[in-house]
Specification:
mainly beta, 10 strands, about 220 residues, single chain, Leucine-rich repeat, LRR (right-handed beta-alpha superhelix), 2 helices, about 5% helix
Length: about 220
C-alpha cells in the first residue's frame, strides 16, 4: 500500500540544482514540490508521474518547461511556474483540460501564451509581473475563470471579449498603464472585486459607479 509520504513529495528549498532521477521513478506521486531549488531544466521523464495533481516549479531558473508536461492528464489542482525566466509555454500544455489553477507570474512573457487559452477548466489564472501589452480576444474561451490577475504588466486596455467571462469574481489590473477599459466590464454578473490601484493613466469611466452600486468593490 502506498504511504502518504510517498504520494506527497516536498523538496522545497533544498538547493538541489537538478532533480534527482529517483523522483521520476515515484510514479504514484500526487503532489510534487520542487520550488526554490535553482533548477534550470526539468526532465521529460516527468511524464511518468501520471497521478500528479499538484506541481510546484516556482522560484527557479527555468527558461522552458518540457513538452511532456502536457502528458500529465491528472494534473487538476495546481500548477505553479511563477518566478522563473519563461518567455513561452509548450503547445502541449493546452492538453491539461482539467487544470483549475495556473500561476505563471514573474516571468518574461511579452505575449499571452496561446496554450493557456485551451485550459478550459481554469478557475484562477495569475499572470502578474510580466511584459504583456495585450490580452487576446480568445480569453473568452476560459469560461469558468473566477479570478484573473494581471498586475504589473504593460496593458493599455482589455478586449471587449472580457465581457464573456461570466463567472469572473476578481479582476486585478494594478500597476498597468491603462488608458481605456471596455464598459462591458460593468455587465459581468458575478464580479466582486476590480482592482485599479497604481493605475495613473486612466480617466475613471462613468460606469464605475454602476459597478459599485451593484455590489462590486472597486479599488483605485
Amino acid at each position: 500500500m502506498t504511504k502518504p509520504s510517498d504520494i506527497h513529495v516536498n523538496l522545497w528549498k533544498q538547493q538541489l540544482g537538478h532533480v534527482p532521477d529517483p523522483i521520476w521513478e515515484q510514479i504514484d506521486t500526487e503532489t510534487l514540490i520542487l520550488a526554490d531549488n535553482n533548477l534550470s531544466q526539468i526532465s521529460e521523464q516527468i511524464s511518468r508521474l501520471k497521478n500528479l495533481r499538484t506541481l510546484d516549479l516556482g522560484h527557479n531558473q527555468l527558461t522552458h518547461v518540457p513538452e511532456a508536461l502536457g502528458e500529465l492528464d491528472s494534473l487538476t489542482h495546481f500548477l505553479y511556474l511563477h518566478d522563473n525566466q519563461l518567455t513561452v509555454l509548450p503547445t502541449s500544455l493546452g492538453r491539461l483540460k482539467k487544470l483549475r489553477y495556473l500561476n505563471i507570474s514573474k516571468n518574461a512573457f511579452a505575449e499571452f501564451p496561446e496554450s493557456v487559452l485551451d485550459l478550459e477548466s481554469l478557475v484562477e489564472l495569475r499572470v502578474t509581473d510580466n511584459r504583456l501589452t495585450t490580452i487576446p480576444d480568445s480569453i473568452a474561451r476560459l469560461t469558468r475563470l473566477r479570478e484573473l490577475h494581471l498586475r504589473n504588466n504593460r496593458l493599455t486596455s482589455l478586449p471587449e471579449s472580457i465581457g464573456k467571462l461570466l463567472e469572473l469574481r476578481q479582476l486585478d489590473l494594478r500597476g498597468n498603464p491603462l488608458t481605456h477599459l471596455p464598459a462591458i466590464i460593468a455587465t459581468l454578473p458575478r464580479l466582486e472585486k476590480l482592482d485599479l490601484r497604481w493605475v495613473n493613466t486612466l480617466e475613471m469611466p462613468s460606469w464605475i459607479d454602476a459597478l459599485e452600486a451593484g455590489g462590486c468593490l472597486v479599488y483605485f
